[in-house]
Amino acid sequence: KVAQGTGYPVLVRPSYVLGGRAMEIVQNATELIRYVTAAAEMGTSHPILIDKYLSGREVELDAICDGETVFIPGIMEHVERAGVHSGDSMAIYPGVTLTEEEVNTLVEHATRIGLALKIKGLMNIQYVIVGGSPYRSPQARREDNIVSTVYVLEVNPRASRTVPFLSKVTGVPMVKLATKVMLGRTLAEMGYKGGLWKRRKLVAVKAPVFSMSKLVGVDTYLGPEMKSTGEVMGIDVDFRGAVAKALLAGGMLFRSGGSVLLSIADKDKVESLPLIRALVECGCKLYATEGTAAMVEGLGIPVTMITKKLSEGHPNVVDIILDGTVDALVNTVTGERAPLQDGFQIRRAAVERRIPCFTSLDTARAAVESLLNGPGAYSVRSLAEYLNGA
Predict the structure, then answer these.
(1) I need a surface site. Which of 61, 140, 308, 349 has the fewest CB within 10 A?
(2) How far apart are CA 183 and CA 201, in angstroms?
């Protein structure tokens, strides 16, 4: 009744968990019943929380508060939309699709919340912005009169994993400042005003690193449950250079002209069209499972169909992954989370072969965009040179 009243899709999770453990997005009553049944079998005594799932652009910021002033070194925009754990998503500084109005709203909310909670030290806030395509420029969205709504997802009165990242790319010594604030100093005494710190003339991308090859039987799709074990950072003068560096450091960069296997869920097929065209523009050879191949052929794009039904002969999708035929994989999931779901063996084969496996179209789009300037199209400078705008 709660889920029906809230409206599907909903986010369900047990209370008192960290890292999004056992958190899922469920699309209908059938999936909800399966989730609750599994929770009951585990014998958990904690309540299950049900929230409305909002699909939009996820944004977060870290701030330092001294009880009188709220200072925000920077705002980060996630590449993946809401629903992917913040620890598993790629984050961009500064937000590349945020309008001035949205930035002002984020800063105002952070200031009001920090002062109302009387926080002294570090604070992290995560938002979701609903309304308008995340891939349209701020100017285009203004011209189309698209109205967006900013929602506060959560407020953490503590340091977050993005503090080291944001400190490096802004030059603000966040931990040192927050420590002095907790010891009684004010931000004004240390020369800092409230509001948003001046934007640096650079783009930085934080990308997650996974250890899936060491964890047998673990599915690799990105969702609300955190699975990454580390992260890397890429800095450059533009987004394409920064994301190329981050993906290269995280082992997720694939080459122009390589071979890519596509297995796209029906709900994502229309949205995947720009990605597929970008892959063709990069000179990639396409392989695809049955349904995806039919769609690609309908676009007039050459594609080799490979069956994903492992019991129906060879070569199948696992074969061409393991024998090195393909260099990368784009595989989005249907929403069903059963252990033997379609695609599990495909993703595990990619992990064992150590080739990039993208389960989010947003991540794949960022990776392909990094290829459009050609290989090695990024600058090499010292961190000080980037911070000084050299």
Answers:
(1) 140
(2) 33
